[in-house]
Amino acid sequence: MGTLYMVRHGQASLGADDYDQLSELGFRQSVRLGQFFAAKGLRFDALVAGTLRRHQQTLAGILEGMGQAGEHLPWAGLNEYDSEAVIATVHPLPLARPDNPEAYRAHFRMLRDGLAQWMAGTVSPRGMPSYPDFVAGVTGALAHVRAHHTGQNVLMVSSGGPISTAVGHVLGTTPETTIELNLRMRNSSITEFAITPRRLSLLSFNAVPHLETPEHAGWMTHA
Predict the structure, then answer these.
(1) Alpha carbons 198 and 139: distance in angstroms, whole number
(2) What are the extents of the domains in the chain?
(3) For 113-142, what is the mean pLDDT?
(4) CATH of segment(s) 2-81+129-219
(5) Range name among 9-13, 15-19, 53-57 with the lowest pLDDT average
(6) What pLDDT, on the 0 to 100 scale, is given for residue 91?
(7) What angle do CA 100, 186, 96 make, to 5 degrees?
(8) In the chain, what is the straight-line distance between the N-terminal and C-terminal CA atoms, in Å?
(9) Which residues share a beta bridge with 194?
(10) Is pLDDT above 80 for 96?
(11) 3-state SS, one letter per residue, for the chain
C-alpha cells in the first residue's frame, strides 16, 4: 500500500494585485514542510502539481527543504477555481480588496454562497468549467495515482478547492460539507490517502505537524 500526500500551497497573497504568488511566509512554510518530510526519512516516488504559480513555488520549497530534486507531472485539473469569478455570480459589482476582519468575513460569506450555486449548477462563473468538469479534473488526477503508483509514495501539490473535492469524492460528502472543508484548510497542510488499485482511503485531513512546535506556531495561516 502506498500513500498519497496532498499538500495545499503555502500562504499566497490575498489582498494583493496578484494572489497567485507565495508570500515570504508561504515559501518558508513550504521549506519547513520539506524539512519535516526529510526528518521522517520520507522520499517520494512521484511528484504531481497543479500548474498555478503558487503550486510550483510550493513544490520548489518542499524539495528545497528535503534536499531533493526531481521532475514533476503538471496537472491542470488540480488548479483552483477562480474565487473572484465565483463571487461575481452573487455580487456582480466590483469589490475592494479585503483589508480588515469584517471585509474578509464578507468575502468568505459571498464565496460560500457562490460556491454553493456553482456546485448546484445554477450559476456559471465566467471563464470557469462547470462543477462536474472541475470534479473530473481532480478525480482524473486521483485515478492516475491509483493506476500508476500503488505501493508508492506520491506528493501532490494543489489548492483548497481541489483537495476538499478529493476528500468529498472519497467520502461521498454533500456539496455543503465539501465547501466547509475547503474553507477550513490551512496553508501547507497535508491530507493523506492510502493508495490501493481499487480506491483511495482517507488517512488524515488538513494536518500541519511541521508547524506544531513553539517556534513555528505563528506560521499557521489559512489564506
Answers:
(1) 13
(2) 2-81+129-219, 82-127
(3) 97
(4) 3.40.50.1240
(5) 15-19
(6) 87
(7) 25
(8) 33
(9) 3, 201
(10) no
(11) CEEEEEEECCCCCCCCCCCCCCCHHHHHHHHHHHHHHHHCCCCCCEEEECCCHHHHHHHHHHHHHHCCCCCCEECHHHCCCCHHHHHHCCCCCCCCCCCCHHHHHHHHHHHHHHHHHHHHCCCCCCCCCCHHHHHHHHHHHHHHHHHHCCCCEEEEEECHHHHHHHHHHHHCCCHHHHHHHHHCCCCCCEEEEEECCCCEEEEEEEECHHHCCHHHHHHCCCC
- 162: Cβ–Cβ under 8 A, 6 or more apart, which residues? 50, 77, 78, 79, 80, 137, 138, 141
pTM here is: 0.94
Residues 104, 15: Cα–Cα separation, whole Å: 9
